[in-house]
């Protein structure tokens, strides 16, 4: 019976030698309205509500909050609600809030810079206030950063149609994607410099199938297809971003940099809605006009009776049901939405690979 202890010992050694990272202890979020409703700067024609930046309804959970739940963490609080002490920031912070004066612009690179600065300062503060240097290191190593930019920028770019080329004269629509992808990749590198070791970068959804773009491109679609030109534009951005991260990885030793292909995940639902319990993959649950894409959601009364059967919540954003599937697929080893590793592995919530 000496065999059993031996086997156990062997197993323990195997586990110990695996590069399993310790479970993540905090989730920090940077991004646009896909990361927090407080970051919404889209022209929804609801300026009359004037009820602050979180337009109705914010009851729908967004992807970062769903991921926080999977990590066993509370939804990261908005940075503006914190009192500036490390204790409040210890489990994570959501830095995605609208920058003053950002409204109406296609994209302000400054918004990324501003959030990056706040994130870097927070990380620094956590290190400074740690009891021991080891605690400081584990605080940085235990932090997961999620970056979710691009959707609002593309929403604005697409809303202006050919006019957008005139508003971005130096770059054009495609050049704009390159610029944005480069900025996001640079942010990943800058977070690394500040001590971040686990970073997740979200791509942009197939906005060519989003209610707003479908409505704008009514003359181009038959109600079942999507606006290909818009999807191609977004795919160009996603591909550029993925390539930039790929190029970055060898330069950031000891870090896990994950790209999650939100486009692929959403497209799977849009192509096979019934497979995932949806019966509406084009029309917004909450909105007016064709596809619910003319006017966005601004009252409870506008909400459809069965949100869980819609892929799209409003003009450009997914329902909680769709986001929950994206979260599950990002988490799971059985899907390839996130590369090169799934988020369960990244966050250290699994010690065995299978
Ligand atoms: C907002 O409403 C005005 C007038 O109702 C309309 O002309 C304009 O196109 C709308 N803008 C958007 C972004 O829906
Ligand atoms: C900040 O908030 C934390 C947790 O809510 C609380 O314990 C702490 O006393 C607050 N500090 C200040 C200076 O307000
Ligand atoms: C996601 O996974 C959780 C936990 O495994 C499950 O309860 C939930 O129903 C899943 N969500 C969807 C939309 O399938």
Features:
alpha/beta; six-stranded mixed sheet; 41% helix; globular; binds 2-acetamido-2-deoxy-beta-D-glucopyranose; signal; GDSL esterase/lipase; GDSL
Helix amount = 40-55%
User: How many individual helices?
Assistant: 13
Give the overall silhouette: globular
Q: What value does the average pLDDT take?
A: 84
**Physical arrangement of strands within the biggest beta sheet:** 2-1-3-4-5-6
Q: Say how many strands there are.
A: 6
Class based on secondary structure composition and strand pairing: alpha/beta
Characterize the biggest β-sheet. Answer: 6 strands, mixed
Beta-strand percent range = 5-15%
Gap between N and C termini, in Å?
A: 29 Å
Could you characterize the architecture of this molecule?
The structure is a single chain. By secondary structure, the protein is α/β, with parallel strands linked by helices. The protein has a domain at 24-261. It is built from 13 helices and six strands. The chain has helices spanning 3-17, 63-70, 86-89, 109-128, 133-141, 151-159, 163-167, 172-193, 211-216, 228-248, 262-271, 320-331, 343-346, and strands spanning 26-31, 92-94, 143-148, 198-202, 256-260, 338-339. Strands 2-1-3-4-5-6 form a six-stranded mixed sheet. Helix 4 runs parallel beside helix 8 (172-193) and helix 8 (172-193) packs parallel to helix 10. The longest helix is centred in the middle third of the chain and has 22 residues, at 172-193. The chain is globular and about 60 Å long. The protein starts with a helix and ends in an 8-residue tail after the last helix. The model is unreliable at 12-20 and 45-53 (pLDDT under 50). Residues 43, 45 line the site of one 2-acetamido-2-deoxy-beta-D-glucopyranose (NAG).
């Amino acid at each position: 019976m000496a065999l059993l202890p031996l086997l156990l010992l062997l197993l323990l050694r195997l586990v110990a030698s695996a590069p399993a990272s310790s479970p993540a202890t905090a989730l920090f979020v940077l991004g646009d309205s896909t990361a927090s409703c407080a970051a919404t700067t889209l022209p929804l024609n609801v300026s009359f509500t004037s009820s602050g930046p979180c337009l109705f309804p914010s009851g729908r959970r967004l992807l970062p909050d769903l991921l926080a739940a999977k990590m066993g963490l509370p939804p990261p609080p908005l940075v503006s609600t914190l009192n500036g002490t490390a204790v409040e920031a210890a489990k994570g912070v959501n830095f995605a809030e609208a920058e003053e004066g950002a409204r109406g612009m296609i994209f302000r690179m400054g918004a990324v810079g501003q959030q990056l600065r706040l994130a870097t300062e927070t990380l620094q503060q956590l290190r400074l206030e740690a009891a021991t240097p080891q605690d400081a290191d584990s605080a940085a190593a235990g932090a997961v950063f999620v970056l979710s930019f691009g959707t609002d920028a593309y929403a604005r770019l697409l809303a202006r149609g050919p006019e957008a080329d005139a508003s971005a004269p130096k770059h054009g629509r495609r050049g704009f994607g390159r610029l944005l992808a480069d900025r996001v990749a640079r942010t990943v590198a800058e977070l690394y410099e500040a001590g971040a070791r686990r970073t997740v970068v979200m791509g942009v959804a197939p906005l060519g199938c989003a209610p707003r773009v479908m409505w704008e491109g009514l003359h181009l679609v038959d109600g079942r297809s999507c606006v290909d030109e818009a999807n191609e534009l977004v795919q160009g951005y996603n591909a550029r971003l993925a390539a930039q991260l790929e190029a970055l990885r060898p330069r950031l030793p000891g870090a896990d940099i994950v790209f999650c292909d939100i486009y692929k995940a959403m497209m799977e639902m849009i192509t096979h809605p019934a497979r995932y319990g949806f019966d509406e993959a084009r029309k917004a649950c909450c909105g007016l006009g064709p596809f619910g894409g003319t006017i966005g959601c601004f009252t409870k009364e506008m909400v459809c009776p069965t949100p869980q059967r819609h892929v799209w919540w409003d003009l450009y954003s997914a329902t909680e049901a769709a986001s929950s599937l994206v979260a599950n697929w990002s988490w799971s080893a059985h899907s390839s939405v996130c590369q090169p590793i799934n988020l369960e592995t990244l966050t250290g919530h699994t010690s065995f690979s299978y």
